[in-house]
Amino acid sequence: MKAIITGRPGIGKSTVLKEVIKILEANGWRVGGIICPEVRACGKRVAFEIVDLLSGERGILASTEPSNGPVVGRYYVNITDFERISVNAINRSLDEADITAIDEIGPMEMKSSKFRNIITNVLSSDRRIIAVVHTTLVRDIASKFQSIRVFEITEYNRNHVSGEIAKYFLGGSP
Asked: Cα–Cα distance between 44 and 23 in angstroms, integer?
């Protein structure tokens, strides 16, 4: 079982994923993978962290502080931290968790060839996956990989869709 959470920027995709994770964990599921919460300073988003859900290891995915990494919008991507944490977290999750959560598959993350490779392998596998996917990549991913359910987050469903997504997975117990 695989599911994609998508929707316009700022609609609440990552929030929905976190709610789904809470529901699955409350039902006894072990959730691994990565989340990428934003970092704010003086009310402005200045960076994105990357967090391994199983180990708690953290790093910086991208920051507005100039660095050597590739640029996406106003952010400089920290390929070193991202690859180290994301690849290890996803591999650990495949070995130790009931489901792998990935926040997100988007332009920043796709700057990493190691991440692209592991995403291709994970989506081709028979493992349970729930991923936030940037709108520009949804059609391509959904057409390449079989049996992926797409949940589009809107202003109208964002407050209740997490339960529907969790039920999609809970129908097949861990």
From this structure: 30
Q: Which stretches of the chain are assigned E, i.e. beta strand?
A: 2-6, 31-35, 38-41, 44-52, 58-63, 71-72, 75-77, 99-105, 129-133, 148-152
CB within 8 A of 12, min separation 6: which ones?
153, 158
What are the structural domain ranges in the chain?
A: 2-170
pLDDT at 64: 95
**How many angstroms separate the Cα of 173 from the Cα of each of 73, 123, 139, 164?**
40, 20, 28, 15
Kind of pairing between the strands at 38-41 and 44-52: antiparallel
Q: In this predicted structure, what is the pLDDT of residue 47?
A: 94
CATH class of 2-170: alpha beta
Taking alpha carbons only, the member of 139, 132, 142, 143 closest to residue 109 is 132
Q: What is the mean pLDDT of each run of 10 residues along the chain (174 residues)?
A: 94 96 97 95 94 97 92 94 95 96 93 93 93 93 86 94 95 64
CA atoms in the 13 A half-sphere facing the CB of 74: 6
pTM higher than 0.70, yes or no?
A: yes
